[in-house]
Fold:
Amino acid sequence: MQSKITILDVNVDIVTMNNAIERIESFILAGHSRFIATANAEMVMLAQTDNELRDILNTADLVVPDGAGVVWAGRYLGAEVPERVAGYDLTQKLLERAARSGYTVFLLGAGPGIVNKAKNEAERKFPGIQIVGTQDGFFSPMDEPKIIEAIRSLQPDILLVALGVPKQEKWIYLNKNYLKVPVSIGVGGTFDVMAGTVRRAPLWMQKIHLEWFFRFLMQPSRFMRILRLPQFVIKVLAVKKVRQNNRDIL
Ligand code: UDP
Structure:
């Protein structure tokens, strides 16, 4: 079976939530420095103009289909994308697994109060979880070497990086080999949701693929970013049309 689908030059893995968790667990056990990205339509659109981001995503060890847009595009382009693997849900499942299996976790990113609240919330929700350190995401370049050393010496099994797209992907790519953390994941606004400062869309809205609209209502400053969604749809439709035309010519 096909294992990846290329959506506007970004390779996305065709996985279920369970597949993703199993793969991540096998990365932890193998112990190399692996990088996981959660691709949504906004990220794929950004990768159209940011070649560095595109190349980084295409070297990632796992890119999950985070977002209704990416699931739709994958299916429209002919792949059997089984389900959406949202970054927030993936993180929660992984924290649950970490608590059960004794994997250690470091949280990097979001505001200082937020990342600590996210840690407290994880400890409440997943008793026994070992969060070995936290660091907010608004550090100066001068403090960065100290932070990197701290993470490296703590040797967590999982590093969750919430610096926003594409900063978090670039940061992980740049530092992963030195950090030697088995699994690093870019998790965007996950800590804000865990801390309770940003709400996720109600389930019924997620089910009808309107989570993006809810995020816009909650954070109207995201307006310009939301404009990338119709551009994404138009581009995917165009790709399929070109493919069909090429097939007709042949
Ligand atoms: N952030 C950070 N440092 C920065 C820029 C952003 O820690 O220099 C955090 C921000 O506080 C938020 C997260 O990164 O917690 C990005 O959230 P967003 O919902 O924008 O994620 P995205 O949509 O980019 O995945």
Summary: The first helix runs from residue 17 to 30. Residues 109-111, 137-138, 162-165, 167, 188-189, 191-192 surround uridine-5'-diphosphate (CB under 6 Å).
